[in-house]
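Supplementary notes (optional reading)

For those who missed the lab, this is the record we used. Protein: Nudix hydrolase NudL. Length: 133 residues.
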Amino acid sequence: MEELNIKRDNITILGEMDYIMNERAIIHCYVGEIVGVEKDNIRFNKEVQEIFTVPLQYFMDNRPTYYSSTVRLEHPDDFPFELIPNGRDYKFRIGVHSVPFYHLETYRLWGFTANLTDRFVSILEQNENKTAE
């Protein structure tokens, strides 16, 4: 609402979809619909560069590409290595972080937004399969 400068009355919340949790935050995602206002009439604030739309069917037909990044711990100079087995030689795990990208014609949808979009499509497909049974 805040970033798009639209009234609460112009948003229909359909429900909470899922959440993403990392070391810094928990992000709750809600599915909603903007009603009673046209996209071209939305006067967004300075936090938003541009508004664009993509038909839902595009996401149903095109899954994102996931790219992997290696995640390693970096320890500050005062980290107490002397308190752990093998000290500086301790074998900390190296993680893998998958980052999804939708390669749209003009835009790139990636990161949390792409992750939650892909999750939304998965939920729709699961519900579609249950309905078909």
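If you only remember one thing from this example: The two ends are 38 Å apart (CA to CA).
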